[in-house]
Here is the input.
Amino acid sequence: MEDKLILNGHEFTSRFILGSGKYSLDLIKAAVENAGAQIITLALRRAAGGDVANILDYIPEGVTLLPNTSGARNADEAVRIARLARETGCGDFIKIEAIRDSKYLLPDNYETLKATEILAKEGFVVMPYMYPDLNFARDLQNAGAACIMPLGSPIGSNKGLCTKDFIQIIIDEVDLPVIVDAGIGRPSQACEAMEIGAAAVMANTAIATAGDVPAMASAFKKAIEAGRESYLAGFGNVVEKGARASSPLTGFLHN
Amino acid sequence: MIYLNGKEHEDYGSLAELLEGNGYKRDKIAVEINGAIIKKSDYDKTAINSGDVIEVVSFVGGG
Here is the structure.
């Protein structure tokens, strides 16, 4: 059976969700292609009129658009952005961000939950960015979220899986795809997230600010695939003390 | 006078005129007038009144 990421019945073979912020537009296509990404996030802002280049013209066809509600400080603003985003004709996916802390950009779980409840009822595929807390993850599931998107570390920090143990708890206890979002800075960290059972990884800054953007997108793709494959394969036991020989200890020299 | 994306702007007779006059591409935007979303299919039959607060939004790069 093919290994798929399923979000409210929508199936994806890629487990790498790519953010589109901070790129020069001419690098977006190569990043998406090298990442093998089937989902890309976008933000909604006041439109410039005239002949200004639009990011939609740079995203390869067939890629699912995942608008975020960045800029929203509460549920009402997130809902407003989500409804506007859908009216552009991009589909029903929405990544909820409700953030009122401008220093660390940490999500407001309470406002995120309120927005999730409303938007799930309106038929959105709701993907909430959240601070990793088991009780809250269960609340999101009950509210109709399509997945849980806990942060690894603060947005754009490239610090990796600082919240690993708490993400692990959610993965173990909540029957929804867990997509690690924010703070993943290196392929090894993306791989680690997949090794502990994450359903997917989302990354933006790590790729957008890399020296070679397409190459870093490719490196993340391989790391995410390797992490997933190893998770499915099942890890060998850890020996806490001492060693366990890999080669036979008998059959030559001393016996 | 209307308010378009936060700035004072001359009056327009209709939403269609406003979009055309400012070079907005209909397939890439969403429009809100006084807090209410306008469906794309209603763009051609929506009037603009003096004092209206209009937001025209589109996608940009973001995580």
